[in-house]
Amino acid sequence: MRFLLRWQHVAPGTRREGRLGVLSVVEQLQGFELAAGAWERVLGRRVEKYRDEWLDDLCSRGRSWGRLSIRTAVARSRRAGAG
Fold first, then answer.
1. Beta 16-17 vs 47-48: how paired, if at all?
2. 43: number of Cβ within 10 Å
3. What is the pTM of this model?
4. Cα(78)–Cα(21) distance, rounded to whole angstroms?
5. Averaged over 35-53, what is the pLDDT?
6. Which residues, including other chains, have CB under 8 Å from residue 49's CB and lie 6 or more apart?
């Protein structure tokens, strides 16, 4: 568990800093699906003095990502409407 907390930059003394820290965390979590609103909490725990405009800046510079799969509820509602 200690290894995971350090590797994920959650343990004290392992947190990233600044915009490059946000980019580092996003790259590490690439492919991990999470609701858009939850990213602020994830980044806030891994980047020292996290500011939400850092993520906005990265996204506006083309460093963005999207959901990899359709949520089950959405898929079900689409199938129901298509039938």
1. parallel
2. 20
3. 0.70
4. 38
5. 90
6. 17
- Report phi then psi at 47, rounded to 5: -120, 125
Provide the residue type at 83 as one letter. Answer: G
Measured distance CA(81)–CA(83) in Å, rounded: 6
- Which tokens is 68 given? 């990899």
DSSP conformation letters of 7-74 = HTT-STT--EEHHHHHHHHHHHTTT----GGGHHHHHHHHEET--HHHHHHHHHTT-----SS--HHH
The pLDDT score that the predictor gives to residue 49 is: 94
- Tokens standing for residue 14: 């392992």
